[in-house]
Amino acid sequence: MNSKLAVEFVSFKDATSSARAKKGSASPRTLVVFAGKDLSFGAQTTKLLGDSLESIRRAAASASFKGKASSVLELWGPDGLKFDRLLVVGAAAKEPPASPAPSDALSLGGYVMGKLGRKGEAVVLFDMPHELEKADSAAADLMLGMRMRAYKFDLYKTKKGDDAEPEGALSIKIALADPAGAKKLSNHADAVAEGINIARDLVNEPPNVLYPEEFAKRAKALTKVGVQIEILDVKQMQKLGMNALLGVGQGSVRDSRFVVMRWNGAKNAKTKPVAFIGKGVTFDTGGISIKPAGGMEDMKGDMAGAACVVGLMHTLARRKAKVNAIGAIGIVENMPDGNAQRPGDIVKTLSGQTVEIINTDAEGRLVLADVLWRIQDQYDPQFMVNLATLTGAILVALGTEHAGLFSNNDELAERLTAAGKETGEKIWRMPLGPAYDKLLDSRFADMKHVGGRHAGSITAAQFLQRFVNKKPWAHLDIAGVGMSSPSTDINQSWGSGWGVRLLDRLVADHYEK
Ligand code: BES
Ligand code: MN
Ligand code: ZN
Prior knowledge:
Bound molecules: ligand BES, manganese (II) ion, zinc ion
Number of strands: 17
Structural class: alpha/beta
Shape: elongated
Largest sheet: 8 strands, mixed
Strand content: 15-25%
Number of helices: 16
Radius of gyration: 25 Å
């Protein structure tokens, strides 16, 4: 859900020719300025605040406001200013590091949005108390942070509580010396914000609404932005031999789907595509190896990988990325039933390899096995990156700070890690190796799909690696970052939309021609 939020970039001059809201209007006009350490201001801010500076300093002293990051001084009806409200937002550079991290403007935008509320008009004077290296891209990041923070999922609330924020439209002007550069970058930032919010919606939707067929339908909506969509149903998958994916879904009354999205934006149509693959388990009960009841409702988010891929494909198409990209998602519901898969079953995967089922709660890797194989076989991609809420064990290892990265290719792993640092969607590389792989040996089939009690995230990755046919590949285990996310300045949503920014950055930095 996007709340009504209009953002434009203007010059300092245009921003300050503004009048106070009409008397009694419930839509305040707000001026936002940034203050550094010990209440230092940029030159434009000092000029605009003019004679009001003295009373602001007095107010700051009484409120012990010193310009620290994540603090704010709020003044209603500020003396001598043509605004109803003044927000002085702390933006002192963090020490260390001395220079602000790449995602600081993003967080700052989110923080400002959180203070603004949802109604009225605001002028944000993007004039920092310290030097900014890339002012244009920082301004675009500021806007992206605002859009990310403004997201709200309240589709199923029929009553708004007393303390609900007043609804309405918020329009924001971001003022900077020369808005032209930021305007150019804002198209990209808007595309990213839309992609993130599409992914968040999908993750937040309840599992009775968002089952595989409905998920595929929502992916189909991407045709509007120029993405080609192919949807395979159960019969078509049976014909191909995608039995690993189908086995997971066979206990559900909701039929499974396999969706391939294609965006052809490269100048040369023959440029090999990059491929993104997502786990889309719309609900994971565990199947016959059923999960305990406590917290099971969270398993509606077991499709966060697929949601990210849909959001990413939207972003790439919306900003007309010069890349050929494939997004592929396997969508199933994992339910216990008379027809459900059993531990002990042996399935023949699309690759021809046979798998002994050990624990039906390790379903995601089975879905991905067939999708990975199909994509490398059909499209010969430059690389495959898959995202999956694959293991609880990755939460034990990395918590909610980093996603787990597993890869058979150092260059791809390094590029992903760098994109993680740039965007703040951080990943941490974990090991792979023959000793772990051996834990998947089976007495009855080519392999089993679960190793022992130890190294659960690694053996899951080893299993996936058996289906990539030596193609450059990376697996991101996002069980800790994709859902049930801690609230931050830029994300207050249960489904975070994690990965859209990371992978958009990976593409933008290395794969556009
Ligand atoms: N979807 C779960 C993993 C998960 C756990 C995601 C917590 C998000 C939060 C996955 O399908 C699963 O159940 N994995 C099992 C694997 C085990 C049976 C080998 C797990 O992690 O316990
Ligand atoms: Mn499971
Ligand atoms: Zn799962």
